[in-house]
Request: fold
Amino acid sequence: MAKLWQKNSELEALVERFTVGDDYAVDRSLVAADCVASMAHAIMLYKIGILGDRELVDLKYALVEILHRDEKQEFVIHPSDEDCHTAIENYLVKSLGEAGKKIHTGRSRNDQVIAALRLFARGFLLQFQKACLDLAALLHGFAARHSLVPMPGRTHMQIAMPSSVGLWAGAFCEEMLDNLLLIDAAYTLNNASPLGAAASYGVPLPLEREMVAELLGFERVQNNVLYVNNSRGKVEAVILDAVEQVMLTLSKLAQDMIFFSLPEFGYFSLPDEVCTGSSIMPQKKNPDVLELIRARAATLSSLSQQVKAVIRSLPSGYNRDFQETKAPFVQGIRLGMISVRVMELVIGRLKVHREALAAGFRPEIYATDYALELVRQGVPFRDAYRRVAADLDSLKQRDPVQALKDKSSSGTTGNLGLEKSAARISSRLEDLAAEQRRVNEKLAALTGFELELFSPQDP
Reply:
C-alpha cells in the first residue's frame, strides 16, 4: 500500500530505513488513540458535507474493527507503513475504497500525530495521578501507624535530633501530593485539541474544530494553528518533567530504604519477595528494585532532556525532527508508571524494627533539646548552645517518645498534621474520579464501548 505522501517516485531503501527508524514499532501504542481521533474527525467531516451517511457508518465500523483487532494485538504496522496513521488509512482504503480515501480531508499527519499523542498522554496522566495518590495514601497510612515510633533524625548523615518514622513517611506523602500539582499543570496543558491545524496553517474548509474537541473530551481547542505544531515536543517535555519530579521523590525514598535496611542500621526490613539474590553469595538479599528506581530516575531525566534537546533549535512549523521525541516520551511515561507501582509494592510490605530505631537514641541526640531548655530559663540561645557543646559527655538518656511529643508546632513529630494530607488525598481522588468518568463517557459515546487509550505495557 502507498505511503500517505507517495507520488510518482520510489524512495531509496536506505533512506526509507533511516527515516522510518523504529517509529512504526513505537506507534503500536498509538493505534487506539488515532482511531478515536479519526472517528471524531469523520463525524465532523460528515457534518460539513464531505462524507455521506453510508460513508460515515462504514468508516466508524471499520475504525471500531481496528480497535478490536488492536486490543487482540492483531493489527500489524509494517516498516513500509512508516507509522500507525498510514497503516490505519491504508486499512480503511483497502476495506472501504472511496470512503477510506476521504478520511484525511482537512488534516495533516502533523495534527493527526499530535492528537493521538494528546489522547494517549491524557490516558496516562489520569492513570498516573491515581497511582501517585495510591502511593501517597499508603505513605499516609504508614505514617499514621508509626507516628510516635522514634527514629533518629540525621543531617550530613550524622545523628542530629529526635525524629519519628511517622515524620519520615509523612514527608514523602506530602511531597507526592505536591508533585501532583505539577501533574495537574501538565494535564491542563495537554488537554487541548490540535485537530484542524493541519500542516500548521489550517485549510480552506469550514472545519468544526470545537465540535471535534467536544467529541474527544478535550477541555478546549488549541487555538493558533501554527502554535499547535510548535507545541509538539514541548507538551511532551512538560509531562516528562512532571514525571521526573515524581521519580526524584521515589529516588530519595529508595535511597533511604536502602540505607536504613543495611544490617548496620536495621531500621527497616525489605520484603523478601521484592529482593533478589547473588549468583555466588548464598546469604545475599539485594535491594535491586530500589537501586533500579534510583537509576531509572536518572534515565527519566535523560529522556526528558532528550525531547527538549530535539526541539530546542527548531524553526516554526513541522520538522521531521519531531519524530525523535515520540520514543523517549512513550518510554518515559511508562517508566514513571511502573516505578510508582513498584514503590507502592515495597512500601506496603516494609517492616519497621522499633528496637533498632530506639538504639540510635544516644544521649547526644537530645543536645538541642537541652540547649532550648536553657533558653526557656532565660539563657541566650548562643550561650546555651556553647554550654551544651562544652559538656556533651554529661548529657543523660531521655524518653524518646516524650521527646517526640514535646514538639507541638504544626508539622513536627508531636503534631504531624496527617489529617491535612488525608483531606488532600480524599479531595484529589474525588476530582480525579469525576474527570475519569467524564472522559470515559465521551469515549464510550464516540466508540460505543469503554476504551482505555493508555497501556502501561508495550503492545
In short: The first strand starts at residue 150 and ends at 155.
